[in-house]
Amino acid sequence: MHTTRIRQLLGAAAAAALTVGGVLAAAPAANAAGVGGASFWVDGTQYRTVGTPTDFSGTGAPAGSFQPIYAFPEGTQTNVATAAPGDPGYRGGRWVVTEVLLPNGYPAALASGDLDGDGVLDSDEELWAAADAGDLAVGGVLRYFECPVIPLPRNGG
After folding, report:
1. Is residue 16 part of a domain?
2. pTM for the full model?
3. How many domains does the chain have?
């Protein structure tokens, strides 16, 4: 009788140990999944973010406490933000994501806004140049959130 009880306890302990081990082994992978690749441009420099589950929509926080990120349609290019850590006016990683519309298509926006000729709209100055030409429009707010940002090395790593 005691043998059966001991086996049950040992079996439960082994299962618990395997579960904890599996969770610990998966933790680095889960944490790594939070760090994204290139997420947005600021003045010609690409930044990545660390994904967080925050959502400040409907909290009543002042609109001026968020930094704009202009979200381009999927498949066109990486988003554009107006400031990054160290820039005047940077708001500490609090973001308002605003939709970018391309009424004449992405090639037209690129033709009218790519002021430095590098093949991408990589600053808010270039974004507004395309908007002034009528080839880009700023739509509605998609989301308010917070996440830290990290500059990508120049080699894209």
Report:
1. no
2. 0.72
3. 1
29 found inside a domain: no
- What one-character-per-residue DSSP string does the chain give? -HHHHHHHHHHHHHHHHHHHHHHHHHHHHHHHHHEEEEEEEETTEEEEEE------TTS---GGGSEEEEEPPTTT--EEES--TTSTT--TTEEEEEEEE-TT-HHHHHHHH-TT-SSS--SHHHHHHHHHTTS-EEEEEEEEEE--EEEPPTT--
The string of pLDDT tens digits covering residues 17-47 is 333 333 223 323 333 345 666 688 999 999 8
Q: What pLDDT, in 10s, does the model give residues 73-109?
A: 999 999 999 998 888 888 888 899 999 999 999 999 9
Q: Answer yes or no: is 70 within a domain.
A: yes
Domain limits for position 74: 35-151
